[in-house]
UniProtKB/TrEMBL annotation:
Keywords, comma-separated and alphabetical: Signal
Signal peptide (from-to): 1-19
F5/8 type C domain sequence ranges: 72-235
Protein's UniProt keywords contain Signal: yes
Protein name, entry field: F5/8 type C domain-containing protein
InterPro entries in UniProt: BG_Antigen-Binding_Lectin, FA58C, Galactose-bd-like_sf
Amino acid sequence: MVGIKTNFLLICLLVNNMAQQWYRMRTTYPDFLAICTEQKVASFLSCAALGRETNDATFFFEADKNHCRWNCTFIFRTGVSDGNIEWRKYEIESTKNSAPKKTITSSSVYGNAYHDWSPKYATDSIFQSGGIKIFHSANETSPWIMVDLKDVTTVIYLRIYVRMDGLGERFHDVAVEVANSSSYIQRGFYKGPAMTQEVVEILCDDPTNARYVRLRIIHGSRNVLNIAELEIYTK
Ligand SMILES: *[C@@H]1O[C@H](CO)[C@@H](O)[C@H](O)[C@H]1NC(C)=O
Ligand SMILES: *[C@@H]1O[C@H](CO)[C@@H](O)[C@H](O)[C@H]1NC(C)=O
Ligand SMILES: *[C@@H]1O[C@H](CO)[C@@H](O)[C@H](O)[C@H]1NC(C)=O
């Protein structure tokens, strides 16, 4: 189904459980480097369906040549402009990043040094290139970071800026778990391991409605969770 709503082109896909998911064209271009799987497709809709298959929150389409870029890995770089205007970026519809100014807690802070590694640095909207003023847990089995969105909210996807000065591989086997009180259920997963400077997008199962959103490493026994920035895109 294709629909026109206000001035966005919205693409609606019926997913497995028949819930509807909308993609819309972005008018601003990403400042991330994107390494994607690229292929010629029959139409825009085939491209969107490929994106759906790999659980993409974002994919690209070049209308002139019917080329699709999906299954992308994003790398944070400042000053990347999209020179190729013909590549349009589509992202799943959400209204805003709801993480800033919310209460954020974590399982631990490395060396209890809140001044350098508090979870609050994950939602301060500052994209640190170094290893301090980012969130840094202690070395434990299942470190986590949790945002209290205050109200039950529809969560669409999360965007995580992995540590940028090295050690990106620490970000692996991360589950998105949500709750309204204390019983968490898993609604998204990233296998990884990530690369240093990677920008990881995790699409949540549809629908995900909850007040608390937690990221937790669920495999291995000695893990450290480092997050430069965490964004939670909601309806
Ligand atoms: C997605 O990309 C990864 C490499 O980043 C590749 O190993 C995998 O086969 C790709 N998946 C598809 C469905 O193209
Ligand atoms: C939270 O409550 C809403 C209803 O208010 C419900 O739809 C949702 O499934 C609940 N979420 C969880 C994780 O239990
Ligand atoms: C965590 O601690 C274990 C045991 O002390 C150590 O072997 C491992 O390298 C540490 N992991 C990290 C990521 O620091």
